[in-house]
Task: structure prediction
Amino acid sequence: MLKKIEAIIREDKVNDVMDGLSAIGIVGLSLFEVRGHGRQGGVQLVGRAGTYQVNLLPKIQINIVLNERNLEAAIEAILQSAYTGEPGDGIIFVTPVEDVIRIRTRERGTEAMNYPGDIDERKKK
Amino acid sequence: MNAQISTGDTAWILVCCSLVLLMTPALAFFYGGMVRRKNVLSTLTLSYIFMSLIGVQWVIYGYSLAFGPDIGGLIGGLDYLGFTGVGAQPNAVYAKNIPHQLFAAFQMMFAVITPALITGAFVERVKFKSFLLFSLLWATLVYDPLCHWVWGQGGWLREMGVLDFAGGTVVHIAAGFSALAFALVIGPRKGHGSFPMEPNNIPLTVLGTGLLWVGWFGFNAGSALGANGVAVNALVTTNTSAATAGLVWMLLSWLDGRPSTLGIATGMVVGLAAVTPACGYVTPLAAMVIGAVAAPLAYYAIRFRERRKLDESLDVWACHGMASTWGTLATGLFATVAVNADAANGLFFGNPSQFAVQLIAVIVTIVFAFGMTYVLAKALHVSIGLRVSPIEEEVGLDISSHGERSYL
Result:
């Protein structure tokens, strides 16, 4: 079963999260800039005369598609590396994925997600 | 070539003419960095177009109306239409030491940037066609007459003895209060007050500030119309006021949280605007006071405007109108013949009547600029309309007015 993790994290935690994921062998991911907020609400920025409130905060969303058996390990890696304890740490969504196809080789399914030295290879060793 | 002109003075004023021209692109970027991304090109264009519009209007008839031989103290005649009679020979009234045409060209750059200042009031929503028409009418019916009154031969405010070295009234008060009037007519940007409209590129604004400061040396020191001691004094007072105002704004911003870069840059511009009428008449220490007072005046004017929920978007009224109102009045306080023997003393040097003259000039400028602009804007508002449609405003003027994108 294939799953997708959408992890919305702080901008300044991107490197920590990517390090944490590659440490356990999760290599393929994509990320993009998003804006939003949960319970954190906004921040106050300083304008030319006084302050103003900004409610849409810039965050980073990391998308990872992986096999269900690696899901908990990936989630744990993200939780540990993205944590600060302050409101605004972010949130993770998990959704099912129909299929994965590697364009270069036309491999499908789990084969399409294999990389040398990745999490599945390490488990076999 | 006339043997009477001073080559040194002419060289200097040629340079100043160029410096002041550069201020219009600088202003374009100063404003451009403060609007939203989707309106950057539009905002730049609103300033840049004046180099063309007034570049033509001034030669055809603007210079003549402003500086032509006087009619009733109110306006110049048409003697200089198309710059005829405006050549290499000096004009004995305005500047004996440089070619008349250079004086006219130097003045042109002031006529270019003044209406460009007003554009800060109506960015992100003005209809380009209406803006062009308004600008031409404003230049003809407000700038040219006002310029004549203050600087033109026989102009009634000049005859009254007003001291306005480089354009406190003609440029900054006029632009600032015209901006206020226009903003009242055009109304706020869609969504103003509901969500913050953040500057898209503060580095552009800061770059514009630096270029404006340097250009202002041409604006202020060049208004001495010669390479002499008064010009140097003007340069030093200009620099000192800007420096002081920048520091004070930094402190005010710091008190409100953290010192904002955009704020510091704004403070510098406010100091420059405030000292413009005074620069060739006051001492550097007086300039420090002028800058130090201008900063909180403009700072709290911005806050006042925000509390009133008026979307005079880039604070032309606060930063130019109010700052230079103070500066023009301060000229009536601090002017001294020790700095400029051809001028007069102010109140602090034993001549209270100068302050009264300055006050009259300020009031006249405010009423005239505000009143005329309000009428012009209203007339356009009810006829061809001042604003783009809501969807055009939502998409952004770069695409809807100009069919272009700033950034891919």
Summary: The CA atoms of residues 13 and 222 of chain B lie 6 Å apart. The mean pLDDT of chain B is 97. Residues 352-382 of chain B form the longest helix (31 residues). Chain B has 14 helices and two strands.
